[in-house]
Amino acid sequence: MTDSDNRKAWFSHRLRPARADEVGVGWYGGHPRGVPNELWPRCAVCGNPMCHMAQIDAGPWLDLGDHARMSLFICHATGGRCEDWDPFKGSNQVLLHRHRDDNLYDGPPTVRVYRRMVLALDDMLDELALMTRVREDGLSMSEALEQLRHDKLGGGAVWLQGDSTPLSASGEAPMRLLLQLTTELVAFDITPGGMAYVFFDPDDSSPGAAHMLWQSGG
Ligand SMILES: [Zn+2]
Predict the structure, then answer these.
(1) 22: how many CB neighbours lie within 10 A of its CB?
(2) Most-buried pick from 68, 140, 173, 177 (CB within 10 A)?
(3) Computed over its alpha carbons, how large is the radius of gyration of the chain?
(4) Mean pLDDT, rounded, for 128-152
(5) Cβ atoms 177, 144 nearer than 8 A
């Protein structure tokens, strides 16, 4: 990692509902575009088709390596028995797409569909500057974390149950946070007050380089 990459890892963008005149960077809920039926993720534990959660496009706000878009899916077929919070069990999945396809509308008709919300970004936030205020200006850590406890792209994860950052394939470096997702914009069927986190493995150039996990808020 270069110094400039290190610096960039501290920048985040808050996600919020897009206004009618804004072009979004993605959406929560709805039916995903560009996911053919044969590629629709199925739960590795129970075998059922998963529910679509979000699609977010790469850009200056989101570095997906060679990929243009990510699509998030989670199993809600068994009420949590598939352990859908685990980043490696296969009961949730992050699909990375080389190309954006906004036209293809495919997939199983029986899967639950969440309310669609188009997402836009707030201005970039420098989280390192915020943490410097904790160190130097007496801002309390809990207050600083409260300022980051929202849906966002990049920056550091605000953990609810302790740091669970997955390690990259080399087993040495922590993966990089792509997305932190609350249940406040769309109440996905993860525990209310819970948060989901999507991480990217820079050592992995495959479409399986991103992993999602979530923690409960209680
Ligand atoms: Zn399942």
Answers:
(1) 13
(2) 177
(3) 17
(4) 96
(5) no
Q: Ligand 1 centre and the CA of 189: distance in Å? A: 13
Residue 70 Cα to ligand 1 midpoint, Å, equals 21
pLDDT, tens only, 95-115:
999 999 999 989 887 788 898
Q: Show the domains of the chain with their CATH numbers.
A: 3-215 (2.30.320.10)
Structure tokens at 70: 């990510």
The pLDDT score that the predictor gives to residue 1 is: 56
Q: What is the per-residue pLDDT for 172?
A: 84
CA gap 209, 205 in Å, rounded: 6
Ligand 1 centroid–CA 31 distance in Å is: 19
C-alpha 84 – ligand 1 centre gap (Å): 7
Task: State residue 143's pLDDT score.
Answer: 96
138 C-alpha to center of ligand 1: Å? 46
Q: Which two tokens stand for residue 90?
A: 């296969």
3 state SS of 198: strand
CA of 102 to the centre of ligand 1 (A): 27
Tell how far the Cα of 197 is from the centroid of ligand 1, in angstroms. Answer: 19
- φ/ψ (deg, to 5) at 6: -60, -40
Q: From the CA of 115, how far away is ligand 1's center (Å)? A: 21
Rounded to whole angstroms, what are the CA distances from 152 to 13, 47, 80? 5, 31, 25
CA of 6 to the centre of ligand 1 (A): 37
Task: Report if pTM > 0.85.
Answer: yes
